[in-house]
Every structure is written in C-alpha cells, then in structure tokens.
Amino acid sequence: MGPPRGASRATLALLLLLALSAALAPGRAAATGVFEVRRKFPRHAGGDKHLAGLREHDARRHGRSLAAAVDLPLGGNGLPTETGLYFTQIGIGTPAKSYYVQVDTGSDILWVNCVSCDTCPRKSGLGIELTLYDPSGSSSGTGVTCGQEFCVATHGGVLPSCVPAAPCQYSISYGDGSSTTGFFVTDFLQYNQVSGNSQTSLANTSITFGCGAKIGGDLGSSSQALDGILGFGQSNSSMLSQLAAAGKVRKVFAHCLDTINGGGIFAIGDVVQPKVSTTPLVPGMPHYNVNLEAIDVGGVKLQLPTNIFGIEESKGTIIDSGTTLAYLPGVVYNAIMSKVFAQYGDMPLKNDQDFQCFRYSGSVDDGFPIITFHFEGGLPLNIHPHDYLFQNGELYCMGFQTGGLQTKDGKDMVLLGDLAFSNRLVLYDLENQVIGWTDYNCSSSIKIKDDKTGSIYTVNAHDISSGWRFQWHKPLFVLLVTALCSYTMF
C-alpha cells in the first residue's frame, strides 16, 4: 500500500507554518515582491473549502517568491550493458557527509543505509566510496517517533501499535524483489543551489528521510551498490515535496539522461530552454501516469484492442527513471515485434538472459523502423532503433520486454524507463500536473530560471562516474530496479 497522495488539513497547515518560519528566520535573505492587498478569498465564504483553498493559494505564492533552482550532478549510464541506472551525490548531517543515491521518479522517499545495517554493502563496483549514515554522528540528526505529524501523515493515521517515543518505521519492496526497512530520521540535507551560470553554492535544509537498517535482494549487490535511493515521486514525503513545502523550490524538475557519455542533467526549477511540449498527468495516480493513445511502427498505426491503454482501471502508462527497459502488455509487445522484424522474417532470434537478440552488421537506424508512442494532447515520443536496440558484443538486443508488470487487479500496464527517454530532456511540472519531453543533447546544458532572483542561469551536464566499466552479467530482473514498489509502515 502506498503512502496517501494527499495530506490532512492539519498537515498542510503545519507545512505552511514551517515554510513561513523558514522565510522569516533571522539571517535568511528576505524575498522581495509586490503583493496586492485586495482579498482573493472573502473572509467568511466557503467554509472548509475556503480555508483549504486559502492555504493552497498562500503556499503557491510563497513558493513562487522563494523558490531557487537546484543542480543535482549525475553519474551512471542507462544502458543495460552499463550500470542501468543513474545516481547523484548529496550531503547529509552536521558535519555533512557525502552519499551517492540513485535518482528515481518511480518511488517517493529518500533513504540511505544506516550504520546499524549488517546486510548493507561496504564496497561498490561503481568506483564510488560508500558511507553508512550514523544518526548519533550528526549533531543535527533526530529520530522521528510514530506519533509525530510526518509519520501520521505518511501512514494515513496513528498506528495502533504506536507508543510514546517509539520510532516511525518504514518498509519498501521494489519490483525486482529487493527491499529496505528501517526508521525515519530528520537531519540537514546539503545540496547545490544554482547561483550563476555554471555555478552553484551549497545550501541546506532540514528533511525527513529513511535510515535503512536492513536491505534485501540486489540492493545489497556490491557490483552496483549505492548508499540509497532518492525518490522523486509526488507524495508529500518525497524530498521534492519537503523542499517545496519549506519554500526552497517549486515542484518542477527535469532530467536529461545521457547514454552516450554517461551522467547528464538533473535540475529542480523552471526550464526556459529548451522549450518542451507536454501531456497531462493522470490525476490521482501514485506514479507518473500519462494517457497513451496509439502506437505507430514505421508510420503505420498498430491495430490494438481499444481499451489496452485505458486509464479507467488504474492502468495508463508509467514514466519511470528508476527502470532501465520498457515493459509492455503481451499483445502490444507481439504487435511491435512483428512490425519491427517484418522485413527480416528469416532472421533467427536468440534468447540471451531473457532478451531477444540477433546478429546485424549494418546500421540499425537504417535497417529498422522508428516506433512512435502518441500521448494525450498530440505529444509524440519517437523511439529510434538505436534507442530500443542496444548492442551487447556482437549482438543487438531488444530493449522492450513483455509480461511481469501488472496492477494489483492483474491488469497489464505499460512502463517506459530510461531507454525510451534517454538523450531527451524530460520535464515534470507537478504544479501544472503535466509532463513533457524533447530530443536533446544531454552532454550540453539547459537554461533554468531562479524564481527567487528572476535570473536565468545555465546548468551544465555532469558525469560523476569514475573510470569503471560495468560487466553485463546480471539477468533481466535486476534491471527492473524500481519499476513498482509497495510502501508500508509498521
């Protein structure tokens, strides 16, 4: 069961008070601006709806007046023959220590492995130094009890087993069978705030995150080990939502994942260049669901059941940076494969670690068709052969997979991971509930607006990866890092 998508009125009020306190604290730069004195909301109109609307309006206005841009340096590579994931570096605690965490739009909370974890890896094949978080080693770290507002809001109520001073625990299971359990703590998060063209300055704010006491499955594998996962989901418990509630950022971010050179761009803030066309997010969904309307292969529309992409049964299409591949219902996968290989009827396909692979000596972009996904509002996603076919030695393998991904009621779903969105700028605008993308050179830079100053700054691409080379030996399910997860509290 995932965390509640909304929050109680008390929670919203608390978040607003925290944001206002942060703005008025001594030593902080005051935001400038002109505010109308005229009331947008009459004092006595609307009852509870009026109060909720008033708080929402104030939170949005406050966020606009204070929001700054954030630059998260990226490492890793989305190719299955490389790491199959992307990660960033953040600082936690006082004094701050560095942690490498996977960036994942398919989950919500930030968590890092704790010093009490016996099953957590101590070394990583990614060429990075792992660090275990020690709450007692940070002068600003405090535990979160099960009766505190964050725990109550995240769980959707006070747990029946909650007793005074008991820690607020969590448990997350991911789609590949891996898991993490632990407890929540609050400490300072240190991050890079954009301060000029290609320049950042250190900023910090208090944030609540998971302290992992036990991990299971491939999260403990030393070949791809990281310190944790940084969820960029929509829930109030995510780092993005907490930063927005504190008036630090707006709930708008973008990533550009580079499969050519590795790393890329990941920034929080309003992207003003390049321009991005968008499609609406499906409301009320725990993930970034969009309405897929049709698929073309080589310009020919696939004839598929009319309800195959329906959103009325909690299906739709999920956009997830924590997943490497693309996953399709069987009928969709078979139709695509038939069209892709239509002119190669006698080409033998080899099953290699659950991938459909083949030998091909020419340019795949010249020999295979473009696959186009059409989304609500006329937004296309053109997936070129070099995107959906990846090279592994002398073979090319299909980056689309079928089966294994279903909703709780057993319905197949469409999930598009990094391969479908690599070398594109993808924009998530949660304030306007839209998502969009455009083809882009992810080794270059973007322009982003700092709402706090009104300035427009350049944010460059990064690659914080070391000189390692990942050896592809893991089976398919390892690549499904965080496609679907269930989130529970004890």
- C-alpha end-to-end distance: 12 Å
Q: Mind telling me the CATH superfamily name of the largest domain?
A: Acid Proteases
Shape: globular
CATH overall fold name of the largest domain: Cathepsin D, subunit A, domain 1
Structural classification = alpha+beta
Number of domains: 2
Low-confidence stretches: 1-65, 467-484
Domain Peptidase A1: 86-438
Protein name: Peptidase A1 domain-containing protein
Keywords: Aspartyl protease, Disulfide bond, Glycoprotein, Hydrolase, Protease, Signal
Active site: 104, 320
Question: What do you see in this structure?
Answer:
It contains nine helices and 32 strands. With 490 residues, it is α+β, with helices and mostly antiparallel strands. It folds into two domains: 68-265, Cathepsin D, subunit A, domain 1, CATH 2.40.70.10; 274-438, Beta Barrel (Cathepsin D, subunit A, domain 1), CATH 2.40.70. A hairpin with a 7-residue loop joins β2 and β3 (85-92). α1 packs parallel to α2 (47-66). It is globular, with a radius of gyration of 23 Å. Mean pLDDT is 81; it is low at 1-65 and 467-484. InterPro entries: Aspartic_peptidase_A1 (IPR001461), Pepsin-like_plant (IPR034161), PEPTIDASE_A1 (IPR033121), Peptidase_aspartic_dom_sf (IPR021109), TAXi_C (IPR032799), TAXi_N (IPR032861). One of its GO terms (biological process) is proteolysis.
